[in-house]
Known about the structure:
Blueprint: H1 2-6, H2 13-26, H3 33-48, H4 53-67, H5 70-78, H6 97-111
Amino acid sequence: MNCISRCPKHLKPAQDISNMRKEATKAGLTNSKGVRHAVAFKDDLYKTGRLKEVSMSLKSDGVVDSAKQAFYALRLWKHSKINPFELVVPQKPVNGIDGVRRLMKAAEEVSK
């Protein structure tokens, strides 16, 4: 972030932006790409301890905007960076998923 390197050191723009996002979400402003992405991220992490990149794009961007990135997705698939079959093949949770879930619940409690 350029704002962090350019702002005076006593200012914390990244933290302020993060706080504004939290407040906007609490106020019910949840129909944005950023909020949908954060929710998809949290849901994937809680379910399996892994991120499902393909479904995150669909949940964040929607079908139409995700389809616009088809050529990019094909390049990622070619280089084994994503697996489109993750949409239909369920992933097993990681070892220690209970610990991941406990940490996420604790973080939610602290942030309330």
